[in-house]
TrEMBL record:
Stated name of the protein: UDP-N-acetylglucosamine 1-carboxyvinyltransferase
SUPFAM superfamilies the UniProt entry points to: EPT/RTPC-like
Localisation: Cytoplasm
Ranges for domain Enolpyruvate transferase: 6-425
Coiled coil: none
Reactions it catalyzes: phosphoenolpyruvate + UDP-N-acetyl-alpha-D-glucosamine = UDP-N-acetyl-3-O-(1-carboxyvinyl)-alpha-D-glucosamine + phosphate
Residues annotated for phosphoenolpyruvate binding in this entry: 22-23
Organism: Hymenobacter ginsengisoli
UniProtKB keywords: Cell cycle, Cell division, Cell shape, Cell wall biogenesis/degradation, Cytoplasm, Peptidoglycan synthesis, Transferase
Family membership: Belongs to the EPSP synthase family. MurA subfamily.
Residue spans crossing the bilayer: none
Keyword Cytoplasm: yes
Active site positions, chain numbering: 121 (proton donor)
Encoding gene per record: murA
């Protein structure tokens, strides 16, 4: 297990370029299974989860060529369905959440698919029912083996369009159903579809491949199935969670940082949510400039009551940035209630922040009240372990702002989603050693 040794208390300075988006990449990579023609994808982040999915696709028979450090060409001409029966496949698919999105494309193109319960962050229950109910509505037949192996087949070989109202706007669930519906016979309508930018990116890529999708960006998608899809080129958006993490890092360490090429219109309410914590952000063209701020003050509601920051499906605030919001609130002036509605085990990492000296009350698994220290007292460096990808980065931010040295164990969690984070932050003046 790798660890980071972090000497805190340094001011960072300079420019940083966000990586391509992890959660977009996982959708887009699965979509290459839909066509026998070459698909070129650029701005691919070099991170564990993405590399594992690329390896999985290669092992399934997809031709993979790396034509530049961040650009790959994929061609799924001969997919080896027999690979799905091997223990190697099961082990690979279990390692990341994104593997679940091979189901839709495989069913649409080959009429069969299977998967063990996928991996990803252990942050509470992560049901897949929306995926399966949607695929069943399109005509797939699901067989469950135990509670953690799913086999799907399509009697007659071809999916059929259907109308459906999803019980929740699941991101990967919507992606799976869309990828199945684009090659189904007839028309599919998906109401209560997730509509976040990465899903819009997926839909736009599918349209360039020949799919017929209407309503992109809304929660009502209408898809007219086509016979086959062709190749295309696609460029990944910058990772909005990384952008938010850098904003948080700058605020917490009192540093001046410019985050380059953010595609600001795609960030939704993320910038304004940071502003509610009193963090100044300036848009300079497509860059976000975060000035060094000695103090930042959490706003209240108009009637003076304590602010709540909570997650919601897009266009609400993403759950993946709540851990970052929570950590930066520990050094703000004022109080905020963090309400993580979607996941029930994502706030337990606050114990580590409390050990570092932060003032936090974990009210219940979903809610934590943070009473900001307003820098009257710095956090203390400690040894801690990274429980999940976003808590891991929140702890890294805490360690970079803390007095003394911290050790963060289990940084593989951070490596799942942040590209060379130690080197990139050291280039801004941080002192992080991988040990
Ligand atoms: C690989 C990938 O893309 N992972 C992201 C994806 O996961 P993923 O697609 O797995 O997450 P889902 O959107 O399915 O659901 C997230 C959680 O929220 C709950 N839920 C969801 C929708 C809803 O309307 N109500 C509700 O309560 C679900 O039960 C689940 O517990 O989306 C999540 C929610 O943005 C992000 O945290 C993950 O980083
Ligand atoms: C929860 C996350 O990832 P995954 O769904 O891959 O576990 C995340 O990216 O914050």
């Amino acid at each position: 297990m790798a660890a980071f040794e972090v000497r805190g208390g340094r001011k960072l300075h300079g420019e940083i370029i966000p990586q391509g988006a992890k959660n977009e990449a996982l959708q887009i990579l699965c979509a290459v299974l839909l066509s026998p023609e070459p698909i070129t994808i650029s701005n691919v982040p070099n991170i564990r989860d993405v590399n594992k999915l690329i390896e999985l696709l290669r092992d399934m028979g997809v031709k993979v060529g790396r034509v530049a450090p961040d650009t790959y060409v994929f061609q799924a001409e001969d997919v080896r369905l027999d690979y799905l029966d091997t223990p190697e496949f099961v082990a690979q698919a279990r390692e990341l959440r994104g593997s679940v999105m091979i189901l839709g494309p495989l069913l649409a193109r080959y009429g069969r698919a299977q998967l063990p319960k996928p991996g990803g962050d252990k942050i509470g229950r992560r049901p897949l029912d929306t995926h399966f109910v949607g695929l069943e509505k399109l005509g797939a037949h699901l067989t469950l083996e135990g509670t953690d192996f799913y086999r799907l087949s399509v009697p007659g070989g071809k999916l059929h369009g259907a109308s459906m109202l999803l019980d929740e706007a699941s991101v990967t669930g919507t992606a799976n159903i869309v990828m199945a519906a684009v090659l189904a016979q007839g028309t599919t309508t998906i109401y209560n579809a997730a509509c976040e930018p990465y899903l819009q990116q997926l839909c736009r890529m599918l349209v360039r491949m020949g799919a017929k999708i209407q309503g992109i960006g809304s929660n009502l998608l209408t898809i007219e199935g086509v016979e086959s899809l062709g190749g295309t080129e696609h460029r990944m958006l910058p990772d909005m969670i990384e952008i938010g993490s850098f904003i948080g890092l700058a605020a917490m360490t009192g540093s001046e940082i410019t985050i380059k090429d953010c595609q600001i219109p795609e960030l939704g309410i993320i910038p304004d949510t940071f502003r509610k914590l009193g963090i100044h952000l300036e848009f300079r063209g497509d860059d976000i400039f975060v000035p060094a701020q000695e103090h930042y003050e959490i706003s209240t509601y108009l009637d003076g009551s304590i602010l709540t920051v909570s997650d919601h499906t897009w266009p609400g605030f993403t759950p993946d940035l709540l851990s970052i919001i929570l950590v930066i609130a520990t050094q703000a002036k004022g109080t905020v209630l963090i309400h993580q509605k979607m996941f029930e085990s994502r706030l337990f990492f606050v114990d580590k922040l409390i050990d570092m000296g932060a003032q936090i009350i974990l009210c219940d698994p979903h809610r934590a009240t943070v009473i900001g220290l307003d820098r009257h007292k710095q956090l203390n460096g400690i040894t801690m372990s990274s429980p999940d990808i976003r808590a891991g980065v929140a702890l890294l931010i805490a360690a970079l702002s803390a007095e003394g040295t911290s050790k963060i164990l289990n940084v593989e969690q951070i490596d799942r989603g942040y590209q060379n984070i130690d080197e990139r932050l050291n280039a801004l003046g941080a002192d992080i050693r991988r040990v």
